[in-house]
Amino acid sequence: MPKAIAHQTFEVTDKIYSIRGQKVMSDFNLALLYNLQTRALKQAVRRNKG
Predict the structure, then answer these.
(1) DSSP for residue 43
(2) Cα separation, 5 vs 32, whole angstroms
């Protein structure tokens, strides 16, 4: 059974960083945004590489 994900409110724009001219967002913050566990997000990315 998956762990409960804490519901947190945050501004998406506060979580976007610029690294070497590219806008990036951490997997942790993306998982919060989509209300997923980080592990599940990473699995979905691996399945949908193309």
Answers:
(1) H
(2) 8
Taking CA 16 as the corner, what is the angle to CA 11 and CA 17, rounded to the nearest 5 degrees?
Answer: 140
Backbone dihedral region for residue 20 (phi beyond 0: left; psi -120 to 50: alpha; all else: beta): left
Tell me the C-alpha distance between 20 and 45, whole Å: 22
Amino acid at site 38: T
Tokens of 14: 């506060």
pLDDT at 1: 43
Tell me the average confidence (pLDDT) per consecutive run of 10 residues in the chain, 50 residues long. Answer: 54 91 95 93 92
